[in-house]
Input
Amino acid sequence: MSFTISADDPRSIRALEIAAEADHWLQWRTADEQSAFGVPSQSDPNHYYVVTAASCDCPDFRRNALEASPAQPRAAEPRACKHMLAVRLYCELVRAERMMRPRSITRPPSTASDPSAISHRPLS
Ligand SMILES: [Zn+2]
Output
């Protein structure tokens, strides 16, 4: 999945702004093991949209989804809204971080190079 961040596309700039606030998102797993996020609305911080990489319940996306589906149900995917772009961006960042340090979490504790681990002395 790729992103185009462009000053000509206000949506991508908004997506960056939203992704920068990812610390404040809610996150959970949907029934089909997708990541779903509660992303605060930019116009009303007390309102959270339910967003996944493929859907959003904001008015913008619902309008696009309605427009896209009737004529060409397969050809035209509904245009992603800024929340979905932000979620995709965030998921990519998380994945990139995991790929950059895959061993820092799973590495077993190393004792060989630790001097304090050699605590026993010869018997004589
Ligand atoms: Zn949205």
User: Anything to note?
Assistant: The longest strand covers residues 35-40.
